[in-house]
Amino acid sequence: MTDRTGIFAGDDPFALARDWLAEAEKTEPEDANAIALATSDESGLPNVRMVLLKEIEADAFVFYTNFEGKKGQELAANPQAAFVMHWKSLRRQIRVRGPVERVEDAQADAYYKSRSLQSRLGAWASQQSRPLAGRGTLMAEVAKVTAQKGPDPARPSFWGGFRIRPVEIEFWADGRFRLHDRFRWTKEAAGWTTMRLYP
């Protein structure tokens, strides 16, 4: 049994994560849904970058990307990931890790359609993670796909979503004198167990 009260209270880590994110959206000046996403290549060498978390489902976290970029290739080769969300304004963070799977085409289509036209065209134009001669080359490619795809482009087959189904979620809040509060949720066969951790 753990002494989870106040901001840590509740029996559902995904509901708790949604509550913390909703609170951060009121205080963070930019991109409260930004996560530092870690993947690793076939040799095990880790890679980390900022991406935007787009949905917290009942049992998973969802983000979108180019499947042919570095992160997409790494997730195809090793479908596991970890991320951290940190909110300086709240002095809190959430850490997540677990296996990864692609989201269904219909879900990816719906999210893609909700994006601005410029972002949809940008998804077509960007050969993510590959060498680029200059910004002019990128802008020329945007102009080209704009002429080709028109005002309502379909989602590219090389672009879509990934879902992380966590095996661990940790909620952390800053404490005075570095005596922080940390609670780790671990996925077991019978459900989630929680444990308070030393700072």
TrEMBL record:
Pathway participation: Cofactor metabolism; pyridoxal 5'-phosphate salvage; pyridoxal 5'-phosphate from pyridoxamine 5'-phosphate: step 1/1; Cofactor metabolism; pyridoxal 5'-phosphate salvage; pyridoxal 5'-phosphate from pyridoxine 5'-phosphate: step 1/1
EC number(s) given by UniProt: 1.4.3.5
PROSITE patterns: PYRIDOX_OXIDASE
Positions that bind FMN: 49-54, 64-65, 70-71, 93, 128-129, 172, 182
Molecular function per GO: FMN binding; pyridoxamine phosphate oxidase activity
SUPFAM superfamilies the record matches: FMN-binding split barrel
Cofactor binding, note field: Binds 1 FMN per subunit.
One example of a Gene Ontology biological process annotation: pyridoxine biosynthetic process
Catalytic reaction(s) noted: pyridoxine 5'-phosphate + O2 = pyridoxal 5'-phosphate + H2O2; pyridoxamine 5'-phosphate + O2 + H2O = pyridoxal 5'-phosphate + H2O2 + NH4(+)
Cofactor: FMN
Species whose genome carries this gene: Jannaschia seohaensis
Family: Belongs to the pyridoxamine 5'-phosphate oxidase family.
Protein name in UniProt: Pyridoxine/pyridoxamine 5'-phosphate oxidase
NCBIfam families: pdxH, PRK05679.1
Residues binding substrate: K54, Y111, R115, S119, R178, L179, H180
Gene: pdxH
Entry keyword set: Flavoprotein, FMN, Oxidoreductase, Pyridoxine biosynthesis
Purpose of the protein: Catalyzes the oxidation of either pyridoxine 5'-phosphate (PNP) or pyridoxamine 5'-phosphate (PMP) into pyridoxal 5'-phosphate (PLP).
Gene3D superfamilies linked: Electron Transport, Fmn-binding Protein, Chain A
Assembly with partners or alone: Homodimer.
InterPro entries: Pyridox_Oxase (IPR000659), Pyridox_Oxase_CS (IPR019740), Pyridox_Oxase_N (IPR011576), Pyridoxamine_oxidase_dimer_C (IPR019576), Split_barrel_FMN-bd (IPR012349)
Top-rank lineage group of the source organism: Bacteria
Domain (Pyridoxine 5'-phosphate oxidase dimerisation C-terminal) ranges: 159-199
